[in-house]
UniProtKB/TrEMBL annotation:
<keyword id="KW-0585">Phenylalanine catabolism</keyword>
<feature type="binding site">
    <location>
        <position position="208"/>
    </location>
    <ligand>
        <name>Ca(2+)</name>
    </ligand>
</feature>
<feature type="binding site">
    <location>
        <position position="253"/>
    </location>
    <ligand>
        <name>substrate</name>
    </ligand>
</feature>
<feature type="binding site">
    <location>
        <position position="137"/>
    </location>
    <ligand>
        <name>substrate</name>
    </ligand>
</feature>
<comment type="similarity">
    <text>Belongs to the FAH family.</text>
</comment>
<feature type="binding site">
    <location>
        <position position="249"/>
    </location>
    <ligand>
        <name>substrate</name>
    </ligand>
</feature>
<keyword id="KW-0106">Calcium</keyword>
<feature type="binding site">
    <location>
        <position position="135"/>
    </location>
    <ligand>
        <name>Ca(2+)</name>
    </ligand>
</feature>
<feature type="binding site">
    <location>
        <position position="358"/>
    </location>
    <ligand>
        <name>substrate</name>
    </ligand>
</feature>
<keyword id="KW-0460">Magnesium</keyword>
<feature type="binding site">
    <location>
        <position position="242"/>
    </location>
    <ligand>
        <name>Mg(2+)</name>
    </ligand>
</feature>
<dbReference type="Pfam" id="PF01557">
    <property type="entry name" value="FAA_hydrolase"/>
</dbReference>
<dbReference type="InterPro" id="IPR036462">
    <property type="entry name" value="Fumarylacetoacetase_N_sf"/>
</dbReference>
<keyword id="KW-0828">Tyrosine catabolism</keyword>
<feature type="domain" description="Fumarylacetoacetase-like C-terminal">
    <location>
        <begin position="134"/>
        <end position="419"/>
    </location>
</feature>
<protein>
    <recommendedName>
        <fullName>fumarylacetoacetase</fullName>
        <ecNumber>3.7.1.2</ecNumber>
    </recommendedName>
</protein>
<dbReference type="Pfam" id="PF09298">
    <property type="entry name" value="FAA_hydrolase_N"/>
</dbReference>
Amino acid sequence: MPILANNPNRKSWLEVASDSDFPIQNIPFGVFLTKENIVTVGTRIGNYAIDLGALQQLNYFEGIELTDDMFMQDTLNDFISDGKKTWRLVRNRIAEIFDATNPKLRDNEKHKDIVIFNVDEVEMQLPVLIGDYTDFYSSKEHATNVGKMFRDPENALLPNWLHIPVGYHGRSSTIIPSGIPVHRPMGQTLPNGETTPVFGPSRLVDFELETAFITTDANIMGENIPVYEAEDYIFGMVLLNDWSARDIQKWEYVPLGPFLAKNFASSISPWIITLDALEPFRTKGPKQSPAPLPYLQSKGKHAFDINLEVSITPKNGVPNIVSHTNFKYMYWSMCQQLAHHTSNGCRVNSGDMMGSGTISGPTPDSFGSMLELTWGGKDPIQMNDGSERKFINDFDTVTIKGYSKNNEVRIGFGEVSNQLLPPFVRK
């Protein structure tokens, strides 16, 4: 089935700025609360949020097999469960409805009043009920930088790294959408030179520049997903800030890896950008040497050219861009990650989220964490207001943006932006 929604010549009858992340060729999916306090599944074109539940009630999806309440829910899980054919049919239909040449909704003022909101009038929610969350560690540059910092620089990568997409299971209960503040976590740390740990606020809170992909129901328990089929089970992508407390992590991670240093907060952008929308931006990933084992070998273009940017904004200050990088640098692709994840028969469900791991590029200004950008705090970043940052200060806001662009179209993710507050105090 062709992806008609991606036609680069298509224009919308809704006004869309030339530099918008959300042209009619994007058609992302999210969940929002309307000004009437109704939660609905929606999409976005330009600065307009579109109520898909209302569109469905008004019969604009006639001919597409959907359950009666498909878009009148508070998560996208059921829609995602319907699979790739339904996703594509719905995107194609939305593109048709909002095409500049289609008068059906364009000229119906009553329907437009019910269906279309300004984005400032809605409150974005977490788009899916995330049952399970896995975080990978798939940037060779990031893994090498961390290895140089904490291990033998000559053997920065551990022996397994070039053979498997390394990952761990995170916690879904503290995944939040953009705009929700994050509290500085409390935890155990081991001060330099001491042998006994102390308990208190983390002093080394960091961002991790990541993306994440959202899956549909992929398999039954015991079944593996072949690498060449894996993308059929990926609904789309979001931006991810996988907050980290480096001092807590340093003390706790041996022998089982990340725990409380990572599960206090992970933030995602609210609009899920489908793989269909990103199709024009496919590219080849880095050469993999040694060649992966056969079950991880894939041909063709399975990386995506997505520009990524991180800024830090002090309280009452202006944004300071601290990193520019690109998703195409990832050593292990999403299809390899999902194939490996299910290679032992692990079940993957609709709404599960898989984090890419910190995305770092080859140059110092393209590193994806403060740990790397300041090299463990040794080289502080100078801010516009004259202050310095080794890690994230209280009341700083960390914002991640991402977009893909070619000569015909720009497809963006919007942003994930959250402020770091002091530790939570019970009243």
